[in-house]
Write a structure and sequence with these properties.
This protein is of the alpha+beta class. The protein has five helices and ten strands. The chain has a five-stranded antiparallel β-sheet with strand order 2-3-4-1-5. A five-stranded antiparallel β-sheet has the order 7-8-9-6-10. A hairpin with a 5-residue loop joins strand 2 and strand 3. It is globular and about 60 Å long. It starts with 13 loop residues before the first strand and ends with a strand.
Length: about 230
């Protein structure tokens, strides 16, 4: 795993335990990454997708006694992930048990340590779950998760066809790009004319869902009216 992509969000206040004799095969056939990597790694980043290959959840998986623990977004998002996993349970010998902290599932965005983390992950163009993804709409390529949270050798999983096709044919035409605005960033969802759609932000930094050709033109200095500078260059 690329260490720059390995940044666990402090907003992951949910925890789901998947235990039982079939825990490995159950998760392995559903999630995007390869659980076999946990034989040599402590933690694994993975996603749950729609059958059409669109983003629903991302989470971090650890081995525990009797199965696996999934660190995910809290509260309603945690319950949603648990319920979606239960849809695939059928006759599998597994139990799916969610736990989450009380509250709204989000940390105080004014906390200084949180701001430091938030600005750092924006600089690296790393999404923060539902703050940056359109649930059931975003692709992993758009979220920059198509490398860090996916195995292209493990075999089938839910939504694999679209992910593999976009990867093999290089079909991702836009993705999240970290920028630093010269003034206050616009609200989430704002269409920034000529540049893309605003996603999450912290202070003057933010993520824009930007076409790759526009990003390349900004890098080359061919667009001079950008209200931001690109980060991570």
């Amino acid at each position: 795993m690329n260490p720059e992509q390995f940044m666990i969000s402090p907003n992951l206040t949910g925890l789901i335990f998947v235990k039982g004799a079939d825990a490995f095969s159950f998760l392995q056939n559903i999630i995007t990454n390869d659980l076999k990597r946990l034989e040599t790694e402590d933690i694994l980043h993975a996603c749950l997708l729609t059958p059409q290959g669109k983003y629903l959840h991302d989470f971090f998986v650890r081995k525990v006694v009797g199965g696996y623990a999934l660190a995910c977004e809290g509260d309603e998002r945690c319950e949603d992930l648990a319920n979606r996993l239960r849809v695939y349970k059928l006759r599998a010998d597994v139990t799916i048990t969610p736990q989450f902290l009380q509250g709204d599932g989000w940390l105080n965005p004014d906390d200084q340590e949180y701001k430091i983390w938030d600005m750092n992950r924006i600089q690296k163009s790393i999404p923060d779950g539902s703050r940056d993804a359109e649930i059931g709409v975003s692709t992993l390529a758009e979220l920059n998760l198509d490398k860090s949270a996916v195995s292209y050798t493990k075999g089938c999983y839910v939504g694999q066809e679209l992910v593999a096709r976009m990867h093999n044919r290089n079909l991702g035409k836009k993705h999240l790009v970290g920028v630093e605005f010269f003034e206050t960033p616009p609200p989430y969802g704002t269409e920034i004319e000529g540049f893309g759609v605003m996603r999450s932000s912290c202070d003057h930094r933010g993520l824009i869902l930007m076409p790759r050709d526009i990003e390349e033109q900004v890098k080359q200095g061919k667009i001079e009216n950008a209200p931001f500078r690109l980060l991570g260059l």
